[in-house]
Amino acid sequence: MDCIWFYRNQIVHGSPTIPIDNFIKSALNLFQEHRGAWNEKTSSASFQWTPPVRGKISVSFDVAVRPFGSTIAAVCRDHLGNILACATNFTKNCNPNNGEALAALLGIRIASEKEWKSINLEGDSQVVISALNNPLNITDWAIEGAIQDSRTLLRNFDDWKATKIHRDQNRCAHQIAQWASSNSVFKDIPLNWIHQCLLEFHSGKDPPSV
After folding, report:
1. Where are the domains of the chain?
2. SS in 3 state form for 23-61?
3. Average pLDDT value for residue range 109-135
4. Going by CATH, does the domain composed of 57-200 fall within 2.170.190.11?
5. pLDDT tens for residues 166-181?
6. Residue 122's beta-bridge partner residues?
């Protein structure tokens, strides 16, 4: 529309007009720029983490894999996005799928100990999410033990579901796993540490050791 209005003004006011081919090219380029900007904005918004409905607890999990082992993390949040519990642990296993499965198991254990009855398990590993929903979908037998233990614990819940989320939606668990790995913190994380964990993390790199 801006291009059309500009072209119209040139004709009305007797200014030298742009050749019609150049006008069309300019309009198409501007359209592509606007479309790209809107697609980027829409994509970013679609990957925002969404809290669970009231009465459910979100249990998100992730793993930070290193050459010497893996740090697993689980974060539990309510319908307002408040962090209710958080824990990390360490395993010498460097298999990413196994780490994700153990992280899910850690989150389930937290929820079971808290006696929450309705949870949403959320992770960015399709391998683990599929296996949690149906053990027949296991494609990496390294996770079989953790999946079996998880499904046994899940019998204690009135309602649960496991959902694959985008990595950007899993940033909270991801950041805490990275922070715990860098600082060798493997335990239940006090809630007054959480803000510090997230602040120290900067995108693309591990947070500095403290």
Report:
1. 2-46, 57-200
2. HHHHHHHHHHHHHHHHHHHHHHHHCCCCCCCCCCEEEEE
3. 97
4. no
5. 999 999 999 999 999 9
6. 60, 163
